[in-house]
Amino acid sequence: MRVLLAAALxxxxxxxxxxxxxxQRPAFRGVPRVLAHDWEGQASAIAAAASAGDSCHALQLxxxxxxxxxxxxxxxxxxxxxxxxxxxxxxxxxITCTPPVPEKQPKPPHEKHDHHRHHEHxxxxxxxxxxxxx
Length: 134
What we know:
- By secondary structure, this protein is mostly helical.
- Helices cover 51% and strands 0% of the residues.
- The protein contains five helices and no strands.
- The chain has a domain of 85 residues.
């Protein structure tokens, strides 16, 4: 649940900082709209994977988002770099990959061995039919 909250917080920070309202206006006050949109989609994917119980995929996505933010830090206003970098790092650090436990296959029933069958006793008559005299 904390992962979902962290992802939602990241989306709010990125979306709230989108600043540029004109089509080509520089985003000196916020995160460039294209980055905010991309990161919002990535954060939503992280939240979806986490809520579906796929923590390993959520972690992979969170690491990818962190790499994207770090790689784009020069495109961010200086005042927004620390909270965004801290947020994506915290998100990736909170997720623990826990592979799903495979369902245990039922063991085949233990075959009972008829030990008497393996050790058949034959009479001393040699023909195995009771050994009586004719």
